[in-house]
From TrEMBL:
Coiled coil: none annotated. This is Response regulator transcription factor. The modification 4-aspartylphosphate is found at D57. Residues 149-214 form the HTH luxR-type domain. InterPro entries: CheY-like_superfamily, NreC/VraR/RcsB-like_REC, Sig_transdc_resp-reg_C-effctor, Sig_transdc_resp-reg_receiver, Tscrpt_reg_LuxR_C, WalR-like. It comes from Pseudonocardia nematodicida. The keyword Transcription regulation applies. The keyword Thylakoid does not apply. Keywords: DNA-binding, Phosphoprotein, Transcription, Transcription regulation. Residues 6-122 form the Response regulatory domain.
Length: 220
């Protein structure tokens, strides 16, 4: 039997938490072990309940979601943080990912997409809303080239750089396999080496490394 995905809800809006809890309680495969109304409470409950995913708001009293994310990631618990907010500005996206968040969605995300996003993050993947991805690309594209050079990728081989570029663009492992004509095992090996060489916690951290190294340019 498949284990339900445990989701800790962290948001200072009680009505919004109730809406999300109702959605999760009504959907097979999910459960809500606890709710938090402040950032500090979210961090403490994440350690106490060790959920699979923390659905974290950014703006909360008692320690914001960014600080709480950093605390959760640094606590050693298995929880992965999915930031959910109305504020999809670059500063929040980048700070959240830097703090160790595994994904970022805005609050007007449709219910089905939200459920899929929670499942994706629980499975160990990174998740960025399309609007957020475009903003990151614009922020960390050619305009920043003078500040961020390829030497931010020490020891990374040419093939690993190609893989990282596609990861940064949001491609899945299967899509990378097809694009570079590599086997599934080879792609996993390259990603594993990138994680080690770039001291990245997960795929989201690789995305940050790719943007900082200007591997992706904004669409014209």
């Amino acid at each position: 039997m498949t284990r339900d995905i445990a989701v800790l809800l962290a948001d200072d809006d009680v009505r919004y938490r109730a809406t999300i809890r109702t959605l999760l309680d009504a959907t097979d495969g999910f459960r809500v072990p606890a709710e938090a109304g402040t950032g500090d409470e979210a961090a403490a409950l994440a350690v106490a309940h060790d959920p699979d995913v923390v659905l974290m708001d950014v703006r909360m009293p008692g320690g914001d979601g960014i600080r709480a994310t950093s605390a959760v990631v640094g606590s050693g618990c298995r929880a992965r943080v999915l930031i959910l907010t109305t504020f999809d500005r670059d500063e929040y996206v980048y700070r959240a990912l830097r703090a160790g968040a595994a994904g970022f969605l805005v609050k007007d995300t449709p219910p089905a997409r939200l459920l899929d996003g929670i499942a994706v993050v629980a499975a160990g993947e990174a998740l960025l809303a399309p609007t957020v991805t475009r903003r990151l690309i614009a922020e960390f594209g050619p305009a920043a080239t003078a500040r961020r050079r390829h030497d931010r990728l020490p020891g990374v081989t040419g093939r690993e750089r190609e893989v990282l570029t596609l990861v940064t663009r949001g491609l899945s492992n299967a899509e990378i396999e097809a694009a570079l004509h590599l086997s599934r095992g080879t792609v996993k090996t390259h990603i594993g080496r990138l994680l080690a060489k770039l001291h990245a916690r997960d795929r989201a951290q690789l995305v940050i490394a790719g943007y900082e190294a200007c591997l992706v340019e904004p669409s014209r």
